[in-house]
Amino acid sequence: MNAALLIARRLVSAVVLLGVMSVLTYGLLSLSPDGPVQALLGNRPSTPETVAAIRAQYRLDEPFPVRYWHWLSDVLSGDFGSSVFAKQPVLTVIAERLPVTATLAGYAMVLTLLLGIPAGMAAGLRRGKLLDQGVTLVALVALSFPPFALGLLLLYGFAVELGWFPTYGGGDLWHYTLPAIALSLGQAAVLIRQTRAATLDVGAQDYVTFARARGLGRMRTWGSYSLRNAALPVLTVAGLLAAANLTGAVFVEQTFSLPGLGSLLVQAVNQKDIPLIQALVLLGGAVVIGVNLLVDLIYLVVDPRVRHGAPA
Amino acid sequence: MSAATTTRPGVREHGRRPRIAGGRVLTTTALSALALIVLAAILGDWAAPHDPALQNVELGPTGPSATHLLGTDDLGRDVLSRLLAGTRTALVAPVLIALGTTLLGTTLGLLAGYHRGWPDAVLMRLSDLLYALPGLLVLIVLVGVAGGGTTIAVLALIVLNAPSDIRIIRSLALGQRELAYVDAARTLGLPDRRIVFRHLLPNLAPTVTANLLLSFVSALVALTGLSFLGIGLPAGTPDWGLMIQENRTLLDLNPWAAVAPALLIMITAIAATLLGDSIFERLDAGKGVPE
Predict the structure, then answer these.
(1) How many CB atoms lie within 10 A of CB A108?
(2) Among B29, B141, B182, B195, which is most buried by a count of CB atoms within 10 Å?
(3) Chain A interface disruption, residue of B14, B26, B145, B242, most A CBs within 10 A
(4) What percent of chain A has pLDDT over 70?
């Protein structure tokens, strides 16, 4: 399969996925137990006039596909409607909260990479040694850490007892350190396992054996052969990590009272603010699908084997 | 299929783990911890020193004392009794989800891996789709908006968790179907169903068992997470996740009210993970997993 075809297929499947997500999100409106009118009314008084206005505004009397189509064309032109409770355009509400979540997610991603890759490589290179055993065990255990429980323990230990960190809210990076640690440990564990496995794979390759037989130094073998090839697993799990980052942020923001998109989603769900939920879920899905698409494209660039159609 | 969707953590590195020194001690500790937690779930109501719902607003949040071993929350309710009362709810639903996920994932994985053909293609596309969704986000919205409570959450988690089992079992079944014993069984004219369930499945037992425990852990984390967000449960229910949420502002008055449930969730998750890992290692020993 040549590269162009591969790209085309990936693009098509990303668009299809986004389409499925949008139908599901739009369907949410009809799922809400009190019916769409009540959900869209929120705390406004339910008079015949307001109900009629809502029905007309959201085209509730038209069949589902027609309604969906109008909603979708609005969304595609950047109009997600208004938040039922904030009474502001949904995108304005989201834009206000975005920096907090972006900071948290970025910080956590950096920590994940700084922790995951070196630890995974070190374990892979010292296979079976005490270091490997320790790292493998910690990664195995950390995989099952729920970020909110971990976050709470960090909050208690380092913020309340030791007083090294602030206990709640956003601000400078210091405020984000504990949340980012809580968010990144589980993800780092995924990365460690993946990197370790890749390092073992690479270490068993003939070209590495040959490089060593030729008498190349350790640093040279690791630096020019192992590191490059072991970097691929980072890409492989990037989509997974993006999804983990998004969902993890919901919990961690709640634990540390950070006013980000995660706490916005929880608030919107509790208030049944459907337009806001639709926008948040669609954006979240789009981020994950986008990252996966990006990963596939980057693979084409960095791994010639994929480019030339060999199974990766 | 691209590399990004075929390689998943947990699939490749099976059987290539180092033997961990003191592994036996760890396994014993994990097993004892789980046994204690199960015991608490069974005896919880009987062993609780106080009524978990009994309020004592005048007392308010207090630290540990002789009458309240883990102190009280802001409504003066006994933390230890509430923890015990929450143990059963914490375990039952994840166990159901783990059983459901493993049953569904193993059956479909065997089907896809052994029969290949269109069921395989359809299942792989479907699991690609589910992988691309941020599952927990979907769950939060589904349970929060539809308000279906635990039943919806259990069913949704089974569907969301099954794809990873399907993939793991499928890739193993793909390898097994080429082996001589499967060939032999086929030559003898045994029906496919018999080959798959009586000959192939026992060889995958270590993975199935490990999957069962891993599914339990992810279900536990997801469900306590949902209740931590205050979704799907009425306020005041004695539940580990909800207790963390309700008591996280009391960290300076009675830290145990929030720290103890957090610790319990972590300990249960870690113990089940370690146990799953050690069962896998033990059952798989001598099976000659290719290095």
Answers:
(1) 28
(2) B141
(3) B145
(4) 88
A204's tokens:
């068993």
Q: What are phi and psi for residue A82, nearest 5 degrees?
A: -110, 145
Q: Provide ipTM, 2 decimals.
A: 0.79
Q: Report, in angstroms and rounded to the nearest whole number, the Rg of chain B calculated over CA atoms.
A: 22
Cα–Cα separations (whole angstroms), residue A200 to A203, A235, B17, B63, B173: 5, 17, 11, 50, 24
A130 inside 8 A of chain B by CB: yes
What distance in Å separates the CA atoms of residue A85 and residue A269, rounded to the nearest whole number? Answer: 12
**SS3 label, residue B197:** helix
**Angle between helices A238-255 and A90-125 in degrees, nearest 10:** 120
CA distance A199 to A122: 9
Segment 147-176 of chain B within 8 Å of chain A by CB: 147
Across the interface, of B7, B133, B252, the residue whose CB is closest to A285 is B133
Phi, psi of B72 (to 5 degrees): -130, 160
Residue by residue, what is the 3-state secondary structure of chain A?
CCHHHHHHHHHHHHHHHHHHHHHHHHHHHHHCCCHHHHHHHCCCCCCHHHHHHHHHHCCCCCCHHHHHHHHHHHHHCCCCCECCCCCCEHHHHHHHHHHHHHHHHHHHHHHHHHHHHHHHHHHHHCCCCHHHHHHHHHHHHHCCCCHHHHHHHHHHHHHHHCCCCCCCCCCCHHHHHHHHHHHHHHHHHHHHHHHHHHHHHHHCCHHHHHHHHCCCCHHHHHHHHHHHHHCHHHHHCHHHHHHHHHHHHHHHHHHCCCCCHHHHHHHHHHHCCHHHHHHHHHHHHHHHHHHHHHHHHHHHHHCHHHHCCCCC
pLDDT bracket for residue A111 (50, 70, 90): very high
Query: Using the beta-carbon criterion (under 8 Å), do A265 and B274 form an inter-chain contact?
Result: no
Contact A260, A249 (CB under 8 A): yes
Which DSSP category does B248 fall into? Answer: G
pLDDT of the residue at B268:
92
When CB atoms are compared, the residue of B140, B221, B263 closest to A144 is B221
Half-sphere exposure of A241 (CA within 13 A, CB side): 28
Cross-chain residue pair A28–B141, CB shorter than 8 Å: yes
Lowest pLDDT segment from A44-48, A123-127, A280-284, B274-278: A44-48
Among the partner residues B12, B129, B141, nearest to A281 by beta-carbon distance: B141
Over residues B243-263, the mean pLDDT reads 83
Give the number of other Cβ atoms within 10 Å of residue B280's Cβ: 22
Statement: residue B290 has pLDDT above 70: no
- Which residue in chain A has the smallest CA separation from B252? A160
Q: Which of A196, A60, A86, A239 is nearest to B17 (CA)?
A: A196
Which residues on B lie below 8 Å from A200 (Cβ)? 13, 16
A277 interfaces chain B, CB cutoff of 8 Å = yes
Whole-angstrom distance, CA of residue A181 vs CA of residue A107: 9
pLDDT interval class at B15 (50, 70, 90): very low
CA-to-CA separations, B208 to B5, B9, B35, B104, B145, in angstroms, rounded: 22, 16, 21, 11, 34
Q: Dump pLDDT digits (tens) for B185-198.
A: 888 888 888 888 88
Task: Say yes or no for a CB contact (<8 Å) between A250 and B136.
Answer: yes
